């Protein structure tokens, strides 16, 4: 994320210094009756992007070896946010790998 410019910081300070009474909300009246509101009607989830990544064969094979019942390997991959998290989870589930790394 880029750093804020001096002008942006100045504008933020100016807005933060104002009181609620100083803002003009005449063009956006307060909504007091929420009885007709519908949850999630206008929400559209973004589509995923195809991703290509190289994984070691043992990392690919690992979820399949412990997948049981409805928890398939593909679901495990979807829950993991990144390769580093997958690697940490893999090592947590296979403590012998961590011990081998410490010995080497």
Write up what this structure looks like.
- The chain has 104 residues and is mostly helical.
- The protein has a domain at 55-104.
- The chain contains 5 helices and no strands.
- Helix 2 (57-66) crosses helix 3.
- The two termini are 39 Å apart.
The 3D shape can be described as elongated
Contiguous runs where pLDDT drops below 50 for at least 5 residues = none
Q: Biggest β-sheet: count, sense, barrel? A: none
**Average pLDDT metric:** 76
Structural class given helices, strands, pairing?
Answer: mainly alpha
* Percent range for β-strand residues: under 5%
Kindly summarize this structure in a few lines.
The chain is mainly alpha-helical. It contains five helices and no strands.
Structural topology:
Blueprint: H1 6-17, H2 57-66, H3 73-79, H4 83-93, H5 95-103
Helix pairs in contact: 2-3
Structural features:
elongated, mainly alpha, 104 residues
């Amino acid at each position: 994320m880029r750093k804020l410019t001096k002008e942006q910081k100045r504008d933020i300070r100016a807005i933060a210094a104002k009181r609620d009474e100083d803002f003009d909300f005449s063009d956006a009246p307060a909504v007091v009756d929420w009885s007709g509101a519908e949850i999630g009607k206008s929400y559209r989830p973004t589509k995923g992007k195809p991703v290509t990544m190289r994984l070691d064969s043992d990392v690919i094979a690992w979820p399949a070896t412990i997948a049981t019942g409805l928890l398939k390997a593909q679901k495990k991959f979807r829950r993991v946010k990144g390769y580093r998290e997958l690697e940490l989870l893999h090592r947590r589930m296979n403590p012998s790998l961590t011990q081998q790394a410490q010995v080497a």
